[in-house]
Write a structure and sequence with these properties.
- With about 425 residues, the protein is an alpha+beta fold.
- Helix content is about 15%, strand content about 35%.
- A four-stranded antiparallel β-sheet has the order 3-26-25-24, with no helix packed on it. Strands 4-5-6-7 form a four-stranded antiparallel β-sheet, with no helix packed on it. A four-stranded antiparallel β-sheet has the order 8-9-10-11, with no helix packed on it.
- Strand 5 and strand 6 form a beta hairpin.
- Helix 2 runs antiparallel to helix 3 and helix 3 runs antiparallel to helix 4.
- The two termini are about 35 Å apart.
Length: about 425
């Protein structure tokens, strides 16, 4: 879900909606300096933003831009090399301010490496497709026997595709846009739903509402509605995971907390309060069930202790980026992430250290596949990851309208062990 993107403003001034913090302050100073053409001040602000949020891709590209504008081509190429090491491509050859770098001695090598990371990685199979171009899929669940349930943002529909019989469309029944979903093992499917500006079923798009809902798979009716209490802030429940004690953990990607919902008690409580995460999205339980791994779209990966809500930021190698993660899953001791907040979009595995507090290796499973148009969420079945390949979140205009010509939802399947041949921490500049 990309309510919190890494967009490009102006000439490559990367902005991300975030709560007021040191990074936001430095970013604001950077924009002010850029608009005033005070490039020395811009460079100082870029350095401050990177100090506040280390290795953040948006901060790095802004740093490179400030270095170019200050006539320091060597520093700019070094910074671009750090992004290249993380396999991140900002298309700088198409940005006028960076044109002076084309004469730099390492530009040819840089472009060759960029061309390489733009190549497709991974072998994915098309598992399912739907002739509903404006559906805007987000959440997905795969039932026993291969049936697919797909949740839509635009109209709040649930689309059910079984092997036998026609596709079924379940219209909203007290819910709104459908985000993450999980089976409960009791013939039920829980899903997070929120009333977001992109939802076509409301007239007042400024009003946010959110909650957890349960679809009874026998009757295909909503059997449980747990609306999140309104707190005066915008709230979007984006993903969820169900623990063995009938507790649902869910992330609020706009307001920032992580909630727990007790199914037996029918009550919400706060595990991680507002102010800790900027935009928490995907989450998954560890093997012990004692911790949650949470993907903060603009803050990277953290581990949350369920007993008391304590948060520990994962240590990440310089050549790995854990920003821009939407869907997050676990396969043994590895985390599987769908990253649509960096370019190119990708599916990647992160190997965890034995203590679970650092990433010690990464592997691309899929990247730059032709079907990719903002992949979002998925689910693991056996050794396969099934995921939404083309959500179309990036196709909304400023008025939340979609273009007429879109491809309907495509679900891809990719082997978790597949992808690149070696652990990749990027390519260093010569």
């Amino acid at each position: 879900m990309n309510l919190q993107k890494l967009p490009v403003l102006g000439i490559a001034l990367c902005m991300a909606a975030a709560q007021a913090d040191d990074y936001a302050d430095a970013r604001a100073d950077l924009v002010t300096a850029y608009e005033a053409q005070d490039y020395a001040a811009m460079r100082a602000a870029a350095a401050a933003s990177l100090e506040a949020r280390p290795e953040y891709p948006g901060a790095l590209i802004n740093k490179a831009l400030s270095e170019v504008l200050n006539g320091d081509a060597d520093a700019a190429m070094e910074t671009l090399g750090r992004l290249l090491e993380k396999q991140i491509d900002y298309g700088v050859e198409n940005i006028e301010a960076f044109a002076v770098l084309r004469e730099h001695p390492v530009w040819t090598s840089y472009r060759a490496n960029i061309d390489r990371i733009r190549q497709p990685v991974g072998s994915a199979e098309r598992f399912a497709s739907f002739d509903k171009p404006d559906f805007v899929p987000e959440g997905i669940a795969i039932a026993e026997g291969g049936g697919v349930v797909l949740g839509g943002i635009r109209h709040g529909q649930l689309l059910v595709q079984a092997h036998h019989g026609p596709d079924l469309v379940i219209e909203p029944a007290g819910h709104w846009s459908v985000f993450g979903m999980r089976f409960d093992g009791r013939e039920g499917l829980w899903f997070a739903s929120s009333r977001v500006p992109q939802y076509a079923g409301i007239s007042d798009r400024s009003a946010y509402r959110a909650g957890l809902f349960r679809l009874d798979l026998d009757t295909l009716e909503i059997s449980h509605r747990a609306r999140l209490p309104v707190n005066g802030n915008d709230q979007v429940l984006g993903d969820l995971v169900i623990a063995g004690d009938d507790t649902i953990y869910t992330t609020d990607s706009v307001d920032g907390p992580v909630y727990r919902y007790s199914i037996p008690a029918g009550e919400y409580s706060t595990l991680v309060p507002t102010g800790v995460f900027g935009s928490p999205q995907g989450l998954v339980l560890d093997e012990s069930g004692e911790f949650l791994y949470v993907a903060d779209y603009i803050g990277g990966l953290s581990r949350v202790r369920i007993a008391d809500g304590g948060v520990e930021k994962l240590a990440v190698p310089a050549a790995v980026s854990d920003y821009g993660i939407d869907g997050l899953y676990r396969h043994g001791s590895r985390l599987i992430a769908i990253q649509n907040g960096i370019q190119p979009h990708r599916v990647v595995t992160f190997e965890l250290a034995p203590d679970g507090l650092s990433i010690v290796g990464s592997r691309l499973i899929a990247s730059n596949l032709p079907e990719f148009d903002e992949p979002t969420l998925g689910t693991i079945v056996g050794e396969q990851l099934f995921f939404v390949a083309n959500s179309h979140w990036n196709r909304f205009d400023q008025d939340n309208n979609l273009p007429d010509e879109l491809v309907g939802p495509v679900i891809l399947s990719v082997a978790i062990e597949g992808g690149s041949d070696e652990t990749r921490h990027g390519n260093r500049m010569p």
